[in-house]
Design brief:
mainly beta, 2 domains, 3-stranded antiparallel sheet, 2 helices
Length: 141
């Protein structure tokens, strides 16, 4: 299981009250700790120990360009799903007559040339909240 590193931050407020939160940066901690205690005045945020937390679950979806979808080309699973780092996603693409499957893409990175592909999810701390696997097709001549 992939993990990401968080810092534990302690805040001191006007009047001596204290609070603790975990965040990746001091700015994130200051915002979180300020939001929780308004109208108290945040006077100090200090970094404490580092803690490891598991990568969160995230959603994935499949996509086909509008013109290719209109022609009848499809990508499955149509409803996507929920995954974590290290999970394998099984993708399937179907090209209709007059089209050929080009590949599965994440952004501009080609993941597979196979219409039936198994893709391992990278660490979720470095990918967007929703991963899009796009099936690309080309029109046959």
């Amino acid at each position: 299981m992939a993990t990401k590193l968080l810092n534990s931050y302690e805040a001191t407020y006007e009047g001596g009250a204290k609070a603790v939160c975990n965040a990746q940066t001091m700015e994130e901690a200051a915002k979180a700790l300020s939001d929780e205690t308004e109208p108290s005045i945040l006077q100090k945020v200090a970094a404490g120990i580092r803690v490891l937390v598991p990568d969160p679950a995230l959603a994935f979806k499949t996509a086909v360009a509008d013109d290719m979808y209109a022609a009848g080309n499809r990508a499955y699973p149509a409803n996507g799903g929920i995954v974590k780092a290290g999970d394998t996603v099984f993708l399937s693409a179907v090209a209709v007559d007059g089209y050929t499957f080009d590949g599965w893409y994440q952004g501009e990175t080609k993941l597979s040339e196979d219409a039936e592909a198994a893709v391992v999810v990278a660490s979720t701390s470095t990918v967007p909240a929703v991963i899009t696997y796009e099936a690309r097709f080309v029109q046959s001549i």
